[in-house]
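Support request, please re-run this one:
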Amino acid sequence: MQMRRTMLFVPANNAQFLKKSTEVDADAIIFDLEDSVPLSQKKEARETLSKALSNNDWPGKELCVRVNSPSTEVGLWDLLYVAGCDSVDAVVVPKAEHDLSFVHTSTAKKIIPIIESASGLLNITQVAQSDGVTALMYGPADFANSVNGDIGAYSTSSVVKTLVACHAAMNKVDSIDSVYFDVKNTSGLRKEAKDAKKLGFSGKAVIHPDQVAVVNQIFYPTKEELARFRRIVQAYESTGKRGAITVDGKLVDYAHYKWARNLLQKLSEGE
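Re-run finished. Output below.
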């Protein structure tokens, strides 16, 4: 099972940044063909990315491509391009608002839809249940624009984030929090990442290599937390998985056991 503590956006039209991303300790790389690439450079960006994929290696990382909206001509060209990229694992779909099964069918790739509009949020069940979906991501900037709201308010909206996290959990896929744009504000990044983790998010998108270590640390349990998770699993399984027990002086029931077991399993498979 792929861990997605950090997913680093990298402009697909920048050969230097593409090469640099091979050295970054992010769990996933998102090669961006959408917002970071001017319309006049879309074709050139695909060519630049193809060269990078041929000349570089990202061992152990999930490689994704954020395409332009599949409802546009350039987006359809992007899908055709990604379908021919054997080393690409997933398609990140912006402004997801409906069933995206055709993206999975046409590319044979996993799908990571971005919920970043009012329509996308209201149709999130349909989006999340599309064939091939492996994670849901939240995009507050475009979401705020779609409702004539404030980007800052929607960057920290626990209501919207909870809905994304709940639909991801219901469909047994990861939930990925939005990027934090203030690159130099490490304390702000740390707080936003911690808040997202508390809401159930699996990881966070990042836009700069300096953000990776901070976010990785937050979305990975401490040694003390791991030890407690193991004690919970061991103690609960020794009872035959029935009723409520006490571990470290705290009440533990089946929900706590299942949470600890699933987390340990995911960490083990991600190693």
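The first strand starts at residue 6 and ends at 11. The two ends are 9 Å apart (CA to CA).
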